[in-house]
Amino acid sequence: MNYLSRMKMLSLGLLSAWLMGCASLSADSTSAPGAPVANKTELLWLGQAGFRIKTPGGKMILIDPWITNGPKTPAPYKTDLSALGKIDLLLVTHGHVDHLGDAPDIAKLNNTVLYGPADMVTPLITLGMLPANLGHRFNKTGSVKPLPGIKVTAVQAEHSSLIVWKNPATGKNESHPAGEAMGYIIELENGFKIWHMGDTGLFGDMKFIADRYKPDLVLMPIGGNFTMDPEDAAYAIKTWINPKRVIPMHYNSNPLTPGTLAEFQAAMQGSLTEVVPMKEGQTLSF
Asked: What sign results for the dihedral spanned by CA atoms 186, 188, 191, 194?
């Protein structure tokens, strides 16, 4: 065998070894711990600001569950809270009845911790609405990791918060301060981020929140009166947030929140953000 033949064989051997090493590295990278979860995220709209999220890892997250008294709650959930399935994580943005709703009952039914604003969770416990072991208090910019691979960060919402409680001793309703309203950045096992805004008006730090956490999907109130109306919501999306997708919420269930989907869609003309309309009871995958 001459010199050139030996050099060709050596070069082919080195090339083959290099390709095998690359293949091995690629396989190791695919199966490495912490690799993205292949399954999708499923989102069920329960009306108003209520959503049930099925995570890529199969966990169930419930947010602002105004169920039994919600005028747009889809059957069969309205008459049977157990129809929601086993809830692994319960989040409430503030104390108003259309957000707190059935959360204490759902926490007790599932033996699931209710996470919420610190000064909302405290009166829930002291009034006897929620057992102490089922309440977790945290505040804006605080984050928790309540389930493997899932992180929830509390962020600002420009709104109020109040608990109305019927005193069993007097039979009368009482009003109790419930701290400050919040929104949530929910990061799932595959890195997908959802910003549930809760109830909020416009505030300039929406831009900061978007820049810092980079949400893939925003759940945004558009009803007006208590929150942003369609024009303000569209302004926030187009000027400050610019997410891939936005789902409008907190409209179509209260005469005091007159904003409409059509008004929001019209105000969003020219935006690169996809408006994803949902109907109560509908499930979408992302």
From this structure: negative
Half-sphere exposure of 2 (CA within 13 A, CB side): 1
**How big is the CA angle at 22 (ends 20 and 27), to the nearest 5 degrees?**
95
User: What is the pLDDT at residue 38?
Assistant: 59
- Per residue in 87-127, pLDDT (tens digit) is 999 999 999 999 999 999 999 999 999 999 999 999 999 99
User: How many Å apart are CA 162 and CA 91, to the nearest integer?
Assistant: 16
| Overall size of the chain counted in residues | 286
- Single-letter residue type at 1: M
CB atoms within 10 A of CB 193: 17
Q: Could you give the CA distance from residue 184 to residue 190 in angstroms, rounded to a whole number?
A: 17
Q: Phi/psi zone of residue 203: left (φ > 0), alpha (ψ -120 to 50 degrees), beta?
A: beta
User: Using H for helix, E for strand and C for coil, what is the string for 61-78?
Assistant: EEECCCCCCCCCCCCCCC
Pairing of strands 162-166, 173-177: antiparallel
Number of H helices, E strands in the chain: 7, 16
**What is residue 165's predicted lDDT score, i.e. its pLDDT?**
97
Of 266, 247, 264, the residue nearest 45 (C-alpha): 247
- Domains plus CATH for the chain? 39-275 (3.60.15.10)
Describe the chain by its helix, strand, coil percentages, rounded to 5.
Answer: 30, 25, 45
Burial-class residue 117 by CB neighbours within 10 Å (0-12, 13-18, 19+): buried
- Region of residue 82 (left: phi > 0; alpha: psi -120 to 50; beta: else): alpha
CB atoms within 10 A of CB 178: 24
